[in-house]
Amino acid sequence: MLLTVVLIAVGVLWFLATCQGAWSLVSGLRFYRYVQRHLADGNGSPCFAPPAAVILPCCGLDERLSDTVKAVLRQDYPDYEVIFAFESSEDPAFTAVGRWASAQSVVRWRRVVAGPAESCSQKIQNLLAGLASVSADRETLAFLDSDAIPPRGWLTGLVRPLGDPTIGATTGFRWYTTNGTLAGGVRSAWNAASVTFLHDEKLAFCWGGSTAVRRGTFDRLDIAARWRRALSDDYQVTRAVRDAGLRIHFVPRCLLPSPEETTLRGFFTFARRQLVITRVCAPKVWRTGLGLACNFIVGATAVAATAVWAYFDGRHSLMIGALAAWGVILALAGLKSILRQMAVRKVLRPPDVSRADFLFDVIGVGFIGVLHLVLLLSSARSRRLAWRNRLYEMVSPDETLVLGRTEPAGPARAPQPMVGLT
């Protein structure tokens, strides 16, 4: 009798995990078709290209900052300016950016100094200083992270869809390459899980490292005011656009490669920070992610444990059935990963996307599921986090305490919303 009850419970867990996997696979197929369709139709009206300003907040010499500076100043766009924003002119990047940008004589650019942040993240402090310096004739605002390298059509791709008045913001996303290391592969696969949600406008979010908003929309939604006491710039843009009933439009062409190296410790710190921000700024999203991770892991673990027990108890038919059920769960998740990798390869080319990216994302799907759960649980309590050598405490999505500086460390990553599992 007890065995029957246990097997029924395992069957229920398998069914729930399989339903989640099937839903996830359908989402992956829709993402693939979305990318295919948008690459074919050019992503918006080619006639919409108003004067634009690109704001790029800087903090320290990122590994490939020189490539970012050169790329943003070589955009295939008729009229734009670039504003580099720093906390201080003592930042080593201040002089370096000036030197690199001076070699590009075509595009108008300038540097601004924001001063230290007192009630928001330093990134937002820099963004606000950049906003104050935007020329009066600029009709569109675009934001770029200092460690993201945009292709020549990046700005055009972000701005064109804004000709549709129902679109409040456009966004790209970051694609981490593995760089041939274990830490890079784990980071790549973990980050890839969020990409597949962007095709769905109910789930889409703005990533501050590659986002554009019409200036009139930005001012009407009073996004600058939302930023003044916040830690996460992109969550505030996402909330403002959604509160106004406007759409967030993902632009596949604006998927930006990030090839910088990392360590396992550095990745864990980065990922946990992202999830702490998500828990504070979007608790429903965080709880949904936790539920999905638990459902996937508990279902797969229960079926695998049943197979192991059946083997040692001599129940070979049950063992084979349990192994098959376990394989179904992993196969559904793996197929979605394959679709995601196929879609990304329509946008990026080697070395920005590699065979190692594929292997970590597809073969490592079970491990990444466990990692999601561990990271979500690790972010369940604390509201304190370190970012770019500063320590913050998130009181709420709209209030941040700047607690001070930490010891200098390696380059950190900008917060980005994380949605869920594979």
Number of strands: 10
What is the name of the CATH class of the largest domain? Alpha Beta
Which structural class fits the helix and strand makeup? alpha/beta
* Arithmetic mean pLDDT: 91
How many domains, in number, for the residues? Answer: 2
Largest beta sheet: strand ordering: 3-2-1-4-6-5-7
Biggest sheet character: 7 strands, mixed
Shape: elongated
Uncertain stretches of 5 or more adjacent residues: 409-422
Helical run tally: 14
Strand content: 15-25%
Structure commentary:
The chain has 422 residues and is of the alpha/beta class. 50% of the residues lie in helices and 16% in strands. The strands form two sheets. Strands 3-2-1-4-6-5-7 form a seven-stranded mixed beta sheet, sandwiched between helices. A hairpin with a 2-residue loop joins β9 and β10. The longest helix has 40 residues. It is elongated, with a radius of gyration of 22 Å. The C terminus is likely disordered.
